[in-house]
Amino acid sequence: MSYSTSTRLLSLIIPLVLKLLRSVHALWKNEDRPTLPIELKEAEFKQNSAKVIASLLDTDPAKLKEDDIGQWLHVIRERGYILLGLCAPIQGAFSDLLESSSIAEAIMENLNCMEFRHVSKLIDLVLIPLVKNCPRELLGEWILKLLRPLFRYCCEDIFCDAWFRLLNEGRAGYCYYFGCPRGSEDNVKKFEDYLLLDLTRKVSKLLGVLASLEPNDALMRVDLQPLSTVKTASCDSKCASSNSVVGHSILNDCFEMLKMTLLGSWVDGEATLDAVPFCHALVQVAVATNNRKLRLFIVDDMLPATIKRLCDDLPCAVQQTIKKLSDQLDSSISKRASKDLLVLCEEIYKVYIHSQDFNAEDSDNENLRDPFKDWFARQKQELLVKASCAIPVHFPVKLWNWEFEEEFQRYLPTYIDILYEVDAMDDCPEYDYSDSSTLIKKLRPEFRSKHDINSLMDCHVWMIDKMVHRKLSKEYPKRRSHQLDKWLCKLITSKPYLKNSYESAMARLMENPTIDAKVSHLDVQDAVNMFYHAILSNLEPHFHPLVREGQKDFLIKVAHQFIFADETGYEPLEPESEDFPLHLQCHARSFIYRMKIESKYFEAREHVRLHQEFDNYLSSGELDDDIYCKFSSSETTEEFADNHLARGQFGSWTIISLDCLWRTELRLWICNAT
To answer: What is the pLDDT of residue 484?
Structure first.
């Protein structure tokens, strides 16, 4: 077949293949979403696939076994992937045969429903050939349409969670995404480990292709130097162009949040060898663009993970998992990977650590020693110390994880920063934060710049949103009080004067409504009840207009005092463990508890409770008769107060400061009463 004939034939075949792939993918999608024939809409694929396929093929269901049909569909999918991948190297394929939107719809639409083996084949057979052979001028378009959904799925969804569970719980725990393999539990676990490792290798291979020298030649010319000396303007635009695939991917949010679990935390040597060039490119992009979020990932996540991987004797999740998977890992490849990781670690050290690590007293010895080796040895020793440190007194022993504690301590300054930012939003009750974009606009520019918050998908936005709603819930009583006060003032000053009619009072308030959208309409009825029962029932029993006209200011003062009698002052936003990621909540809870003990928070809270109890005692009327008798007694006020405290329930309290305060309060109360 000639070249022109084969390309014409492919131009007819590819659209049909894409439609077929979309249909096959939809069988794994949620049953209420597919736009497929009614037979497939109503089918539960796992249970009725043989019956459904048989009806579509006009075949006897008894002749078709479910496993055979599943294998048949897998073969269709794989051959479709192979066809697309083989088309990529054809000259002119990206302009004549392949269309980015159609392919993205066909293979990315149901990505989150795919099993790991399908994602592995998709990357290996389709995405890698497309990226390798895509013309330079089209790379940006294809990256955004294909790689953004892939990496967001891998970074934020099941893939990274599976690695996190494997590292920290011993098993990935997502049976469906491993294809529900059958057999003994040990064989199932080994099969799950194999599929997770295979997907990790394919993801790392794709990252290695992205970081290869040819598509990143503009980026590789950026000088590697300490961050403070880089002029970012020209580098930023250079990295944003499609000539730099890694820079273009980062600056266009292909990665919502980079995690080391995307790379398998360096557990697998084969995946590590492929991914290390990508990590070198990330360091280059961070230097060139001064991207704070990327820099934090490199310093606070990639670097600690690399050091842990290089510490063979460290009791950490990575080393334990390497031993667990030893029968599936090649030891010789792991040694080569360790060498590459050491080079990466040294590069990060030179860019971000060396200037801070340099000590003046060591300047004379600078040429006689290797500062990186000294620093690296100290880091390993510090990790060993952290791993063997004592568990805090109040921490549940079974839940202690020194790596989580280390992660929590790194994350704590950012959390405190966010807490202060939300607490400073004094105008937050005036805005509707149901729209997260409004919330982002209310953040101070310097805060957004410091934490690089530019998107609704930022990991900090959900935490800020949760804190704001917590703050709004505490603000609601205050807002309700102010609204009730406005309504009562309106009812008192309304003309003509209101008679004893709920309907007319409700109608009067609703004539020109000033109802806060955040306050329930049921509160209007509460305002009417207060107006009649709490304010007018005793002061204006006959509702005579002249009485209200002359006492209008007094009634408004009564209403104001009645509404705000129990209003509390400003309360700062308190930290809560639920603000943190789930695996850090226990460590956050322990830290908050320790801080409260050190600041004597619980003692202060008990003092407040006892003061309130003492205030209730004074206002209960139990001392009224004694105060009357004091007029005919020779006791001084101090003696009277001491006698009552001594025989009362508060006389046994031993804290001198509180006892003195109560005696002072009681004396003042007696003086006012007399």
So the answer is: 80
500 dihedral zone (left: phi>0; alpha: psi -120 to 50; beta): beta
C-alpha–C-alpha distance, residues 310 and 255, integer Å: 26
* Whether 354 contacts 371, CB under 8 Å: yes
Cα(277)–Cα(50) distance, integer angstroms: 46
Q: Within 10 Å of residue 29's Cβ, how many Cβ atoms? A: 17
pLDDT given for residue 33 in this prediction: 46
Q: What's the whole-model pTM score?
A: 0.75
In this prediction, residue 223 carries a pLDDT of 41
Report the distance separating Cα 602 and Cα 175, nearest Å: 46
Structure confidence at residue 200 (pLDDT): 94
**DSSP designation for 352:** I
Cα–Cα dist 611/614, whole Å = 5
Q: How far apart are CA 268 and CA 253, in angstroms?
A: 27
Residues 176-231 have pLDDT tens digits of: 677 666 667 778 888 888 889 999 999 999 999 988 855 555 444 444 344 444 43
pLDDT at position 45, please? 46
> Quick one: tokens of 492?
């008192």
Is the distance from CB of 314 to CB of 384 less than 8 angstroms? yes
pLDDT at 553: 80
Which tokens belong to 42? 């109503």
Give the pLDDT confidence score for residue 377 in this predicted structure.
Answer: 93
Radius of gyration of the chain (CA): 35
DSSP state of 27: T
483: Cα separation from own chain's centroid: 35
**pLDDT at position 356:** 66
What b/e readout covers 259-286, taking b as 16+ CB neighbours within 10 angstroms? bbbbbbbbbbbbbbbbbbbbbbbbbbbb
b/e map of 582-620 (b: 16 or more CB within 10 Å)? eebbbbbbbbebeeeeeeeeeeeeebeebeeebeebbee
Contact between 219 and 239 under an 8 Å Cβ cutoff? The reply is yes
Looking at beta carbons, which pairs linking 306-310 to residues 24 or more positions away fall under 8 Å?
A: 306/266, 306/341, 306/344, 306/345, 306/348, 307/345, 307/376, 307/379, 307/380, 307/383, 308/383, 308/403, 309/265, 309/266, 309/267, 309/338, 309/341, 310/338, 310/341, 310/342, 310/345, 310/380
> Which tokens sit at 121?
């084949």
Contact 244, 218 (CB under 8 A): yes
The Cα 597–Cα 625 span in angstroms is 42
**CA–CA separation, 599 and 378 (whole Å):** 33
Written as one letter, the residue type at 227 is: L
**pLDDT score for 234:** 43
- What is the maximum alpha-carbon separation in the chain? 125
User: What amino acid is encoded at 606 in this protein?
Assistant: E
Residue written as token pair 């090649």: 330
Do residues 346 and 372 lie in contact, with contact meaning Cβ atoms separated by under 8 Å? yes
Residue 211, Cβ neighbours under 10 Å: how many? 24
- Name the region of 183 (left: φ>0; alpha: ψ -120 to 50; beta: rest): left
Residue stretches of the chain with pLDDT short of 70 = 1, 29-70, 176, 179-183, 213-244, 355-369, 426-437, 457, 475-476, 496-503, 510-522, 537-550, 565-570, 622-674
- Here the tokens at position 10 are 């492919």
Residues with Cβ within 8 Å of residue 616, at least 6 apart in sequence = none
CA pair distance 84, 146, nearest whole angstrom: 14
Residue 508 in contact with residue 491, Cβ under 8 Å?
A: yes
In angstroms, the CA 257 to CA 237 distance is 22
